[in-house]
Amino acid sequence: MTAAPGPITVVIADDERTVRESLELILEAQPDLEVVATAADGETALRACTELRPDVALLDVRMPGRDGLWVLAALARRGLVGPEPGAVQVLMLTTFDHGRYQADATAHGARGVLVKSLPWEELVAQVRAAHGARHRE
């Protein structure tokens, strides 16, 4: 008998506590999603992603100090972003909807750039789609 697959594991990195906690509440309310770590800065996010190897990381594009783009680039340099088993699927988060970060993010392997004001149902769908992308490639 095959064991049921576990939940989709997620790391959330955002310097705004309210955003982190809101995202965590939304994702944890889903039976197939589990937030395994949150981070308020890039250094902590990189450590969490490297040590825990979540299925999906939600990284704020702009944070003081080391930001989400830095984390993404560091993960990519280490070969931890991509469709391979054990790799992290990254979704970048931004407050404003403009394509300024899209090219940098996708160049390093991000699945997309999401606006923080996205309806929660769509955010959840994007997390699931990012995880599913690993299995389609």
From TrEMBL:
Q: Does the keyword DNA-binding apply?
A: yes
| PTM annotation (4-aspartylphosphate): residues | 60
Looking at the keywords, is Disulfide bond present?
Answer: no
The protein's UniProt keywords, in alphabetical order, are:
DNA-binding, Phosphoprotein, Transcription, Transcription regulation
- What InterPro entries is this protein classified in? CheY-like_superfamily (IPR011006), NreC/VraR/RcsB-like_REC (IPR058245), Sig_transdc_resp-reg_receiver (IPR001789), WalR-like (IPR039420)
The superkingdom listed in its UniProt entry is Bacteria
- Limits of the Response regulatory domain: 9-131
Query: Coiled coil where?
Result: none
Stated name of the protein: Response regulator transcription factor
Q: Which organism is it from?
A: Streptomyces carpaticus
